[in-house]
TrEMBL record:
Signal peptide (UniProt feature, chain positions): none
Protein name per UniProt: Metacaspase-9
Disordered: region residues: 225-245
Organism: Dioscorea cayennensis subsp. rotundata (White Guinea yam)
Superkingdom assignment: Eukaryota
Family to which the UniProt record says this protein belongs: Belongs to the peptidase C14B family.
InterPro entries from the UniProt entry: Metacaspase (IPR050452), Pept_C14_caspase (IPR011600)
Length: 337
């Protein structure tokens, strides 16, 4: 890939305030990342769209709004552009329409603030639509985020040859943490309460609530239709595309949302994975490859006591060794965590 000509980002933080699913660090995660993008990676403020569910947010992170923002990024990208999506919020696993789709027999999804789910098949479709020479990096700090780009090649994950020895480590020092997980049954129950219809198929409720703005991959959950391969997915081999996923955990694991105990205003809530990425970037101001960044973040989480959360990397072989966000040269970080 040639050096990026334009850098465009969509940052999404969902705290689900005043609900039983409330998290605390997700908005902080993406605001810190926005500062990093500008100070270190050459992004311009006007090319970064931030969607949060804060009370004063001008654009809420609904499924439709997230989809539109990502769709604009992909549609307007030119060869050499660098696209970035950072999501911090809840994730879920959906029973697969195709039971042998992959090992966990479920599809990964993120949970926007209105529960209009966006699935791994949706992200695959976005990557397939990329123009040649455009990179699309995703950081998903959510539960079950491993494999969030469907069929992306695993570089660091459950079956990776990259092993970090799990030596004895202290448990998480700040015990006030919560998994970024909403179980599928809870998602279905919530959507059922909103739609008012009786159905065990999630697609029925999503269609009733969101119509054509729902995920196309969930419309035919009752009578599943295999996704077509006749579209833009034929432009390049699946293992040669420019989708890059840095996930907060494996597909069968949870990611942690940390809320420092007490009323210490100097310690903000954060997502464990987002914080580990930001700490690694702050401590190593030189160029880091995608592989190096994930390995260092995985090691840091282990040192912090997160022995059951393993960040993963999914991308082509070439992109595994490519610089994170195609950084060139050494740039000092001006922002703080």
């Amino acid at each position: 890939m040639e050096e990026g000509k334009k850098r465009v980002a969509t940052l999404v933080g969902c705290n689900y305030a005043n609900t039983k699913n409330e998290l605390h660090g997700c908005i902080n995660d993406v605001m810190t990342m926005r500062d990093l993008l500008v100070s270190r990676f050459g992004f311009k403020q006007e090319d970064i769209e931030v969607l949060t569910d804060a009370p004063d947010s001008p654009i809420l992170p609904t499924g439709a709004n997230i989809r539109r923002s990502l769709g604009r990024m992909v549609a307007n990208a030119k060869p050499g552009d660098v696209l970035f999506f950072h999501y911090s919020g809840h994730g879920t696993l959906i029973p697969s329409a195709w039971p042998f789709h992959h090992g966990f027999k479920a599809d990964e999804a993120i949970v926007p603030c209105d529960f209009n789910l966006i699935t791994d098949l949706d992200f695959r479709q976005l990557v397939d639509q990329l123009a040649w020479g455009v990179s699309f990096t995703i950081i998903s700090d959510s539960c079950h985020s491993g494999g969030l780009i469907d069929k992306e090649k695993e570089q660091i994950g459950p079956s990776s040859s990259t092993i970090i020895s799990e030596l004895a480590s202290d448990p998480v020092r700040d015990q006030n943490h919560k998994p970024k997980l909403i179980p599928f049954d809870s998602v279905l129950q919530h959507l059922s309460s909103l739609s008012g219809i009786v159905s065990s198929h999630i697609g029925d409720h999503l269609w009733h609530l969101f119509g054509p703005e729902m995920s196309a991959s969930l419309i035919n959950r009752k009578l599943p239709v295999k996704p077509s391969s006749s579209s833009s997915s034929l432009k390049r081999p699946a293992d040669k595309d420019d989708g890059i996923l840095l996930s907060g955990c494996q597909a069968n694991e949870t990611s942690a949302d940390m809320s420092p105990e007490g009323n210490n205003e100097t310690r903000k809530a954060y997502g464990a994975f987002s914080n580990s990425i930001q700490m690694v970037l702050r401590e190593h101001d030189g160029v880091l490859s995608n592989r190096e960044l994930v390995i260092r973040a995985r090691r840091l989480l282990l040192e912090q006591g997160f022995a059951q959360q393993h960040p993963c990397l999914y991308c082509s072989d070439d992109n595994a060794e490519a610089p994170f966000l195609w950084q060139t040269g050494n740039v000092k970080i001006n922002s703080t965590l």
